[in-house]
């Protein structure tokens, strides 16, 4: 079931699109949450730093602890400790704090809640009788006026940390900023001030909830839209498939697949399929015509030969031995031509042997009456026997139609080796200059088969030329007859 479901292009496209969108949404959501959290945390840090630095500036001016305005804010925890981590002042209603390094929330207490130990602060750290007025803001000993002896220097650096604070019975998470103030006579003090992270937690939670609800809905929309779009886009492909299946079942190559009006890749696929079907239909038709023509051409010499042999068997004195031999030779030549065409149609490679085209033309034209040869030495590569067959066919065709003379020339033209065969006959009408290269075509249907042949010579010549990467064309000769030009690539 799974293989069948994901075996379709539509299912795979839908799954791929959904996965891509899901990855993009997760990455975007994570980046958004991180950015939101970073921004809100940065705002909290800014608020905490501003509060801590305001208290530090007042403290550096020598203001008494109970006069520090930053300790009056009910929703912002502030803690001031000395260089021995003993609390000297805290904000009102602060009941508990973590994340500042000192958990004490009563003046005079240090790490672990212990009171002061030196003579400067006296003995009031544990009992809080002198220094603690139970307001949460008093110093560790002495009167507030004693703390004005000299001003301090506020450090430009700010440290940050995260912790919790309990104010008036409510515990929340805070971002703490720590600023140091150093006095020459009293040592170093650290101001810890916190800004609530409730807004950051609430915004991140709301955004996360929205994403958890919205992302699945968005993915469902994407999957549905992709499914419908791919279904619509691929529906012409299914039409093409059904028509091709019908063509295969009926073997009717005249049928064509429907071409959608979308002008896209599917439409081009349909057009290419129809072109392929047209080429296949034409090829099959040529094959049928070739078989029919070959059968027709073979029937005449076979029937003639059989008749002569039957007459010779009944009346030995009437046997036309020369005619029987001629018919046999004609059968042999026609069979050789058909075999060569079959090999060419099968895509037989011509080989890569090098030979001199001028010398080959001289060999085939030598000794023929009325033939003049002007040949340069031009090397080519391929099948020497097949190219020689082309020259023989061209010379035979020219001699059949010439009045008195045939001219053969071999020359080099750039990257081509050119063989020209011209006669002084009537020439080939312009309308028939491509038709004569078709198989079993004879322009003069009234001629005898013995004189005109089977109509395969020029077809074989062009096929061989094309297989060698060349061309064979016909035009008008200077003497008024036909001019055949064979062009083959020169051997490098």
Provide a short characterization of the protein structure.
By secondary structure, the chain is α+β, with helices and mostly antiparallel strands. 47% of the residues lie in helices and 18% in strands. It folds into 3 domains: 233 residues, no CATH class; 81 residues, Orthogonal Bundle (Helix Hairpins), CATH 1.10.287; 137 residues, Histidine kinase-like ATPase, C-terminal domain (Heat Shock Protein 90, 2-Layer Sandwich).
Write the layout of secondary structure elements.
Elements: H1 2-5, H2 9-60, E1 78-82, E2 87-90, E3 94-97, H3 124-127, E4 153-154, E5 159-167, E6 170-183, E7 187-196, H4 198-250, H5 265-314, H6 321-345, E8 353-356, H7 357-365, E9 371-375, E10 379-382, H8 384-401, E11 406-413, E12 416-423, H9 449-452, H10 457-467, E13 471-476, E14 482-489
Parallel strand pairs: 9-11
Antiparallel strand pairs: 1-2, 1-7, 3-5, 4-6, 5-6, 6-7, 8-10, 11-12, 12-14, 13-14
Helix pairs in contact: 2-4, 5-6, 6-10, 7-8, 8-10
Question: How would you describe this structure to a colleague?
Answer:
With 492 residues, this protein is α+β, with helices and mostly antiparallel strands. The protein has ten helices and 14 strands. The chain is rod-shaped, with a radius of gyration of 53 Å. The strands form three sheets. Strands 1, 2, 3, 4, 5, 6 and 7 form a seven-stranded antiparallel sheet that branches.
The major β-sheet equals: 7 strands, antiparallel
- The total count of strands amounts to 14
Which blocks of ≥5 consecutive residues have pLDDT under 50?
Answer: 112-149, 445-452
Radius of gyration: 53 Å
How widely separated are the two ends? 61 Å
**Helix count?**
10
Q: Structural class given helices, strands, pairing?
A: alpha+beta
Number of domains: 3
Residue-averaged pLDDT, rounded?
83
Oligomer type:
single chain
Question: In percent terms, what proportion of residues is strand?
Answer: 15-25%
Helical amount among residues, as a percent range? 40-55%
Helix and strand element order: HHEEEHEEEEHHHEHEEHEEHHEE
């Amino acid at each position: 079931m799974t293989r069948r479901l994901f075996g379709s292009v539509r299912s795979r496209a839908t799954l791929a699109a959904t996965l891509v969108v899901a990855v993009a949404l997760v990455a975007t959501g994570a980046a958004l949450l991180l950015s939101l959290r970073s921004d809100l945390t940065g705002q909290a840090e800014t608020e905490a730093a501003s509060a801590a630095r305001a208290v530090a500036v007042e403290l550096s001016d020598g203001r008494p602890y109970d006069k520090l305005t930053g300790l009056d804010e009910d929703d912002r925890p502030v803690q001031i400790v000395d260089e021995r981590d003993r609390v000297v002042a805290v904000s009102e209603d602060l009941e508990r704090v973590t994340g500042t390094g000192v958990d004490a929330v009563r003046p005079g207490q240090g790490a672990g809640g212990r009171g002061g130990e030196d003579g400067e602060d006296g003995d009031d750290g544990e009992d809080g009788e002198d220094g603690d007025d139970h307001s949460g803001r008093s110093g560790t000993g002495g009167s507030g006026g004693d703390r004005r002896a000299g001003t301090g220097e506020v450090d430009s650096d700010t440290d940050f940390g995260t912790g919790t604070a309990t104010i008036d019975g409510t515990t929340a998470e805070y971002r703490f900023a720590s600023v140091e103030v150093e006095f020459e006579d009293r040592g170093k003090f650290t101001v810890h001030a916190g800004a609530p992270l409730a807004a950051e937690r609430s915004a991140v939670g709301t955004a996360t909830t929205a994403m958890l609800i919205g992302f699945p809905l968005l993915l469902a929309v994407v999957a549905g839209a992709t499914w419908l779009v791919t279904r619509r886009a691929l529906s012409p492909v299914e039409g093409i498939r059904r028509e091709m299946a019908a063509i295969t079942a009926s073997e009717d190559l005249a049928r064509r697949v429907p071409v959608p009006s979308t002008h896209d890749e599917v439409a081009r696929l349909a057009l290419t399929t129809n072109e392929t079907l047209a080429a296949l239909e034409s090829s099959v038709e040529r094959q049928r015509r070739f078989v029919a023509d070959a059968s027709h051409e073979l029937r005449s010499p076979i029937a003639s030969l059989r008749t002569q042999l039957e007459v010779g068997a009944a009346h030995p004195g009437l046997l036309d031995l020369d005619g029987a031999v001629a018919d046999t030779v004609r059968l042999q030549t026609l069979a050789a031509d058909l075999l060569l065409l079959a090999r060419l149609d099968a895509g037989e490679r011509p080989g890569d042997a090098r030979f001199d085209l001028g010398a080959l033309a001289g060999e085939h034209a030598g000794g023929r009456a009325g033939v003049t040869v002007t040949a340069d030495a031009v090397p080519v590569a391929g099948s020497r026997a097949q190219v020689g067959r082309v020259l023989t066919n061209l010379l035979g065709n020219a001699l059949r139609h010439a009045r008195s003379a045939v001219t053969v020339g071999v020359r080099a033209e750039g990257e081509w080796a050119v063989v020209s065969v011209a006669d002084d006959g009537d020439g080939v009408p312009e309308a028939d200059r491509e038709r004569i290269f078709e198989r079993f075509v004879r322009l003069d249907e009234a001629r005898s088969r013995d004189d005109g042949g089977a109509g395969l010579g020029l077809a074989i010549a062009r096929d061989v030329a094309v297989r060698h990467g060349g061309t064979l064309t016909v035009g008008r000769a200077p003497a008024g007859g036909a001019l055949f030009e064979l062009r083959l690539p020169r051997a490098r």
